[in-house]
Fold this protein.
Amino acid sequence: MSNTNSKPGLILFGIDGATFDVIKPAVAAGHLPTVGRLLKEGAHGILKSIIPPVTSPAWTSIMTGVNPGKHGIFEFYTLKEDSYNTRLVSSIDRQTPALWNLLNQYGLRVGVLNVPTTYPPDPIDGWMISGMMGAPTFGKAACFPPELANEIDELGIPYPMERRVRKSARGHYDFAALQRQIDSRSAATLHLLKQRPVDVLIIVCNYTDHVQHNFWHDRSLVTSPGQTIEDMILYAYQQADHFLGQLLNLCGSQTTILVVSDHGAGPLEEHLNLERLLREAGLVVLKSGQRHLSTPGLCLLERIKHTAPQWLRKLAPILWYRKTKTFLEEQKLARIDWQRTRAFNIGTYLGLRLNVVGREPQGCIAPQDYEDQRQQIRSLLEEYRHPDTGAPIFEVYNREELYHGPYVSNAPDLLGIIGEDRVHLVDLLNPHNAPLFTDWQKMKKIAPYRQAGAHRPEGVLIAAGPHVFAHCLATEAQLVDIVPTVLYALGLPIPSYCDGRVLTEVFADDFVDSHPPRYADIAMQRQAEGIEASVYSEQESEQIRQRLRDLGYLD
């Protein structure tokens, strides 16, 4: 069924964290000509993210058409078996087929580049380069087929995955590293499309989200003496717009294009010291009478963890990766009295796991008391009010209210959004002295490397192509609608297990009337081995964790 045109029939172009709050003013000012043309010629509307809007599970929902309860990924991390320690998730944790697997089943060749949580890469008909948030380094292990790595290297295209792009301790930003990321993704994609033609191209530009995390409040940057970029966020969007324009010029007018984001973005106004809140609520209890590293000592190490320069990490990998970070994690866990701790947080948003007997290593909540305890904790969190505004701090959900499927039991028991996504959790090691809330201006003085922008649930969907009807969508689409809509646009049956629907309102009425959606019974369970085992070594795991901090996803 593969076409002989040598040009993709469809492009799924991801812009991580893209928001119409940036796009529409930029288009009106003439700064995004490619996106502006698509808005005029095609359909567009809000693409609503999952709750909470975390990058890894959000992109996985886009690429599978199912909610996290079915695909099994809820955060960047998951708990290790019989432990309170966490490990990074990988593509092996994805329990359902991805879009590229389905397209291969239908005989289409697929090119996939830089999609989050695609390491290790799937052996597909086509090619894949794993996303930078998962692959430890660029090389054969991050590519399929493996010889792609040599092909890219021989072109002289540097393909950085480990470069530091977050603001440093003094607020400095490595603009050159960012530019190398941008240039390498576009150069590699354009080369591969010409040399290894595919029927469908799937790509994600994630530098937009990284820049928004760093520059939402203060957008200008002096890149070199005498040179200043006035708006770094606009610059990142312009780079994505230029890349998209290159692809469309290469492919022509008969290619269907879907531009999507996993979530939106907006200003971060405050940082919440969750550790202190959980302790004051009596949910987390610290041990007493035991000797641990002093709080000032922990805080010093924490600052070193965030601010050590790249050269120091390379010169002292054992000290940096294994000793410092592992010691910090051990100290944090060792301070907790688990037999009296009722709940603990996992991940970058509110994701409370109850400490249940028989499920957790040192559980203190009896299984028969689980529902009562969960409701008590939920009510307690919902009653918290901001000390200045009196507004609720948490919007809390039971996991079953958000997810359904065979892997719901792997999710945190309580999940939620904090401060309408304008508040970010910080992992402060000085809960006695640090305030519960710190506004972004004070945090900037204390730690310039902290985030300035945060995720919002409202992402973007822009569609254009020969059968797309030009208009603004009246209803919000969901992340899980993308796979059914892509398959429909290609004239292919949709798996009956998909949670999403075909966005028929995107297409012209006559096309929909003559092409009703078709469905097929396809196995939902992905065939993968080693689900419980991490694909990362200890040092690789810390490399990825540090990269997520550098990119603005973690503190």
